[in-house]
Amino acid sequence: MNSKIRSWARGVFGWFDERLPISSMWRSQVSRYPAPKNFNLWYIFGSLALLVLVMQLATGLFLAIHYQPNPHLAYWSVLRGIQQDSHWGWLIRDMHIVGASAFFVLVYLHMYRGIMYGSYKKPRELLWLVGIFIYLALAAEAFLGYLLPWGQMSYWGSAVVTNFVTAVPVIGKPIATWLRGSFVVDLPTLNRFFVFHVFLMPLLLLALVLVHLIALHHVGSNNPDGVEIHDNLNETGWPRDAVPFHPYYTVKDLFAVSIFFVVFFWFVFYNPSGWGFLLDKLNYTPANILHTPADIHPLWFFLPFYAMLRGVPDKLYGIMAFAGSFVLLACLPILDRNPVRSIRYRSVLYKVNILSMAFSFLWLGLIAHGLATEHNMVYGLHVTEVFYMTFLALPFFNRERPIRTRIIWLVAAEALVWLVDVWMYSIHAHSWGLMLQTDWIPALYALLLFGLAILFPALTHDAAKLPERLTAGGILH
Ligand code: HEM
Fold first, then answer.
1. Separation of 216 CA from ligand 1 center, angstroms?
2. Distance, CA 40 to ligand 1 centroid (Å)?
3. Which of 137, 209, 260, 431 has the fewest Cβ atoms within 10 angstroms?
4. Domains (ranges, CATH) in the chain?
């Protein structure tokens, strides 16, 4: 009986396989896909992001069945209809909420891995660029979805962001009105945000992720050593430093999934609002258009960008600083042209700079978590300058610089910081005391980075010897 079922299943599979490239795709993309032998922990976040994408689509589908995109019904359709009255509704909603934050954690780590190991360099520039578009689509998806429960923070958060758009000259106001479908956030806004969140953005995300993976499999994976495995093939044409993705990495990824699920479901079952970080406590109050909350802020994953918008003392320049951070990310392949890919073999000061990039981003988040005081706004401005500087300093590390050039970089960086500050303070006069108290942050950063490069040139030297083959955790064989 068993063998009959097996031969019948083989027949059915064979029928499909003759008409669709199932087994050849499986072989070329999975079981014979050459993956570098030395993938480390940083290489699990892409697969986990893929898993979360699928979970968000599945849970979102069930939520959409019960959700009512109408200001009179939305809040209660979520809080009562989904959370309390539908079978397992609470689980589906909490998975969707925790899933949104998990997605951002994973994508931020995934992007930082790309920065550390130079995965944006030739031939992976397009793969990186598609990644940036994925991030933007993901951000739009999260922003659109946040309005749907129609809680206080949903409503006022959307009002603030759509209002920011009006600062763009000429087209800003029409775009904001078109986005809202009205002059204020209202029924048409909720309807279109629902449609964009449920149809448009998921389709776009799926398409982008597909292109991302096609590009990845076309150029092949980078690795923690930054060594191109396809440069060293054996007699059969298989890279000497590669193992088949399946079963080696499918098993490793499955283990990562099990650890991830423990953390993920701890939040889902015990702490779905994540101390107010995953879902703002104010969102347990229905939207009230007559009562503006004292402190309006986005969820944690947008806080660093919110600090930029709040810190730069002009709405339009704030938007430009926000948009500029994505331009800088997209320009990484142009800014960093050092032939050494992996951070493992880059100089000490380059490592400090890449660490400062992450640190200033986190610091911005912390600042925006605080109230919109003058103090926090000014800090936001100065830490934004540091964040920018960590990108603009990258060309300095492209090659060895003579001492004269190092001094020019130091003077230019200091001049730029002070010029930008004087310019910003001429737009909005914060107290000079506060300015002097906080201006040391970018000025000191420039002084440390380039000053140390002048005093101790060895700190700018990349590794003298680069590995030709993959290593064990950076150790040459
Ligand atoms: C929905 C979001 C995303 C998904 C599902 C996704 C998926 C993946 C997967 C499965 C891989 C291969 C496994 C790995 O290397 O971790 C990968 C590689 C890569 N991804 Fe993403 N990704 C996403 C977002 C992004 C973003 C936002 C960026 C950058 C801005 C990015 C840049 C890259 C790069 C450069 C690689 C190649 C890394 C290497 O080979 O070293 N991805 N992605």
1. 8
2. 14
3. 431
4. 32-291 (1.20.810.10), 297-477 (no CATH)
What is residue 427's predicted lDDT score, i.e. its pLDDT?
82
CA distances from 99 to 68, 107, 295, 385 (A): 21, 12, 25, 32
Q: Are 115 and 354 in contact (CB under 8 A)?
A: yes
Ligand 1: centre distance to CA 147 (Å): 28
For residue 46, report the distance from its CA to the centre of ligand 1, in Å.
Answer: 5
Contact between 378 and 428 (Cβ < 8 Å):
no
Ligand 1 atom 29, closest CA: 131
The residue whose CA has the least distance to atom 11 of ligand 1 is 46
CA-based nearest residue to 56, from 13, 95, 105: 95
44-93 pLDDT, tens per residue? 999 999 999 999 999 999 999 999 999 999 999 999 999 999 999 999 99
Whole-angstrom distance, CA of residue 413 vs CA of residue 424: 16
Omega of the bond prior to 402 within 30 degrees of 0, cis? Answer: no
| Residue 132 near residue 330 (C-beta atoms within 8 A) | yes
Alpha carbon of 100 to ligand 1 centroid (Å): 17
Token pair for residue 41?
Answer: 């922990």
**Ligand 1-lining residues (CB < 6 angstroms):** 43, 45-47, 49-50, 53, 107, 110-111, 114, 117, 119-120, 124, 127-128, 131-132, 134-135, 209, 212, 216, 221-222
What percentage of residues in the chain have a pLDDT greater than 90?
90
Angle at 343 between CA 339 and CA 348, to 5 degrees: 105
CA distances in angstroms from 83 to 22, 96, 125, 191, listed in the order given: 40, 12, 44, 21
pLDDT (tens digit, 9 = 90+) per residue, 439-448? Answer: 889 999 999 9
